[in-house]
């Protein structure tokens, strides 16, 4: 009986927590990759990204820096960064629809492959519950 209640609470929490997307992907120089997220109006979202250094312990090569842009379905710009190795964004969606995070790597000869770690959270998953707990709110 206790197991059944615990399982039901766990499943319910999973539905209530919103969406969290964390992924690693490869991007070829001269190309763009976009990730879309369907968001409701007034939903909070946070994202962070960084380029994985192919030679750990050395500075990231200039060839591995990317341009990042986050836009709404209506073309409103929420984040833009040129030639960076990492960054983050946070905003409240003004309108409902698909929001796009697009990553672009400049053309290089010979071509290079850039690996990117990207974490995007929306809704309740975007809230920093550790900070809330520290303040005694939960």
Automatic annotation (TrEMBL):
Keyword Transmembrane: yes
Signal peptide: 1-22
Main location: membrane
Start and end residues of each GOLD domain: 32-138
Assigned keywords, A-Z: Membrane, Signal, Transmembrane, Transmembrane helix
Membrane topology annotation: Single-pass type I membrane protein
Record's protein name: GOLD domain-containing protein
A single GO cellular-component term on record: membrane
Organism: Opuntia streptacantha
Similarity section: Belongs to the EMP24/GP25L family.
Cell compartments where the protein resides: Membrane
